[in-house]
Amino acid sequence: MKKKEQKKVEITPLMEKKEQKKVEITRLELINHAKNDMPIGRILTLYKDLEDFNSIELFYQDGGMTLKIFLD
Fold this sequence. Notes:
Elements: E1 27-32, E2 41-47, E3 56-61, E4 66-71
Antiparallel strand pairs: 1-2, 3-4
């Protein structure tokens, strides 16, 4: 079975004036690969089609040290 190739997405801070390609996100997955107290692997999966969210907004904060994800 062939493994799906994952595309890395660069998220730019809102204060930068770069031309950004509009994308429609239909699934959000949070996957833990860090050495912490959380379980390894997929922690959270939400689907737009299942009405888990309507839209997703991504924001940098604290000089780019914090990524905030807002679900509507």
